[in-house]
Amino acid sequence: MSTQHNTLLLIALMGGLLLSGCDDGKDGADGPAGPPGEVGSPGLPAGSFANTADSIDDVNFMLAPENLNLSADFRIEFQMTGKNVRGEDVPFVGLDRVAIYASHLSLNETDFGAPTAWASHSYLSVGQSAMYCQPGGGELTVRGTTYQACTLEETEPGLYVGTWEHSDAAPPVYLEGDDDSLTHRVWLRAYNLVDSNGVGLAEKVLSERLDYIPATGEVLDDSGRNLVADTACQNCHGGEEGGIIVTIEAHHNYQSVGNCVNCHNSSLAASEEQVAEGWNEGSWDLTVLVHRLHAGAHIADSLSGEALEFMGNIHYPGELYNCQACHQDNTAWTDNIYRDACVACHIDTDPYTGEGHRGIEVADDTTCVGCHGSGALGVMEAHNIGFRDTLKEAFYTEVDPATISLDLSADPAVLRFGYKAYLDGEAFTGDLSTLGFISNNRSWLVNFQADSGYAWAFLFTDGKGAADFISSDYQDGYYWVTHAVPLADAKGTGVIIADVRLCAEDGALVTCGAAVDDTLSVAMKAEAVYFDSLDPARTDVALSRFATDEGGITSIALCNDCHSDIAYAKRAHHGVDQIEQCVSCHNENATDYPFDPAKTNTSRELGLNVHKFHSGHSEYGEIHYPNLISDCSACHVSDQWFDGSGALMSGKSGFKVAVGGNDRLSPIANTCMACHENEAVKAHAASQGAIVDPANAVPNPPVESCAVCHRDVHSF
């Protein structure tokens, strides 16, 4: 036992010695080399591709008819490019989802509705707006709904092929019985694009629309149903030719008429409840929807529920019956007369039942043209907006500058001038009071300003700047006006212009009365006549800034882009359609401090009043301005606000804080606060030296420092 025990101890001791003599655990020598691996595919050279986009404009799709097969054997092929760091167009790689929108222009063979209409393939086939494709196909979920997807494969950089691999269903864009001799439209949307920082693009990435005839492969410039151009919508809603309609909030930047009709056509049915509330007439067709939306406030009494909530406060800013505001350069609106288009505005009329139609029942839309194709009941005559231009020549006056005199020898000074009147193209020399079409808005507006800037002399309520139009005496070939002017105000440039409202009905001047609709009033044609107060005979007069396109001043033409005729906006109580007429009353002498906490608007000065009105900060409450409120170029003819010193190019030097006083607030900051009406902006402006508190007002505020940071903030 002892011998065995000693042997075990010896073995343990020797093992310990052997362990203590081992190496330090480093790797041994390398073994023999293994066989070489397979050669990988080379990567794309830097700059030869793009997989991000900093703008939706960086991405471009290329579609061709020969690469589109919308049949049961669906196949689509398209190319997509992006921008590299040098701004070059290169293949866009890694696209992981697209939506395909397909429709065709169907021919209406019934006696109801428009002669042609867009028909969405996917809506008619499976009740969805588009067909989706993604790598691997399968299914995907969009806004809680699961769809079958086509298989998207990138066969080479930037070249994508979509195929349909589902044997249990037809591709959604396949429409059984589709006539390939008709006009078809296809466009795409790309998903999940990010910028160079990995942030998703805010706008939807859409292709241009491809209109083509599958049977021939012909690409069409005109689909045959381009009834309303995007540019017509952009007049009010903003945007530039070739771009989106900026401020149509629904569906974000699907905002082109050509895109809208993919879904908003007769294929998309409205529920009975929606029709009952006043939304539409059986479908969400764009024709009906747009007419009814713009009628909004006019038909509010016939709306209910969500329709009333959504549309009831939409006030179209021009004459609602001005069809040509949208239907420019075509007569489709007079050629295609059918019930649904008409009752969208005439909501309480139904020709099929006779309701609101003088009891006259019609069997179908083919009979409408019998009464409404021409004549007094014709669509063109009933929606005639050209009468304003016509009636401007029916009666008008002209001031003869050579007759202007200003006697400054006494106080008040005496202004005298002569004008001629014309009725139906002939000189009128009779008693003006016998012309019953001249309304009770009939004045000669007279004003003075010391320079070409903003300091108009008269307050709109003081009576100093208005002379009666009707009481003029006719003598020696002229109607003569004599007007007293406070001597202290009769200096600088003077201006004379009429504010005369004429009554009209059915395209002709008529005797004014309660039965005459205010919307049919006309501003009498009148041109502003400027003169020098010291020498009225001078011809080189320093004009008001409102008479030029300089200094960032607005243009009446830009106002009329949305209003059609600015006279419409003042139709009930003025006959004005020029800015010179507006500022004769809405000048700085009509200004109280504009940020009285007790009121939302205490300014009637034109610049502040218009800014506040359109931004919804006026005493009239919220105004649904249809354009981007930040797009000053929608109204102003220039985006250059400041001169070299940082002062306003317009010459505006401040805003009076009290009627009749001389102390003013700083012009720039207070103009900005007409829209940016909050205490934070006010505090910021004050901290930079602007005078925004009436207690600190001075006669001549110093030039503000706003231009140091904000010189280019409104360059578009």
From TrEMBL:
Residue stretches making up the Outer membrane cytochrome MtrC/MtrF-like domain: 225-384, 555-712
The family database entries (InterPro entries) matched by this protein are listed as: Decahaem_cyt-c_OmcA/MtrC, Mtrc-MtrF-like_dom_II/IV, Multihaem_cyt_sf, Multiheme_Cytochr_ET
- Indicate what this protein is called per its UniProt record: OmcA/MtrC family decaheme c-type cytochrome
**Which species is listed as the source?**
Ferrimonas gelatinilytica
Which SUPFAM superfamilies does the UniProt entry name for this protein? Multiheme cytochromes
Q: Which UniProt keywords apply?
A: Signal
Query: Mind giving the lineage of the organism this protein is from?
Result: Bacteria, Pseudomonadati, Pseudomonadota, Gammaproteobacteria, Alteromonadales
The domain of life is Bacteria
Annotated stretches, region: Disordered: 26-47
Q: Kindly give the Pfam families that the UniProt entry links to this protein.
A: Mtrc-MtrF_II-IV_dom (PF22113)
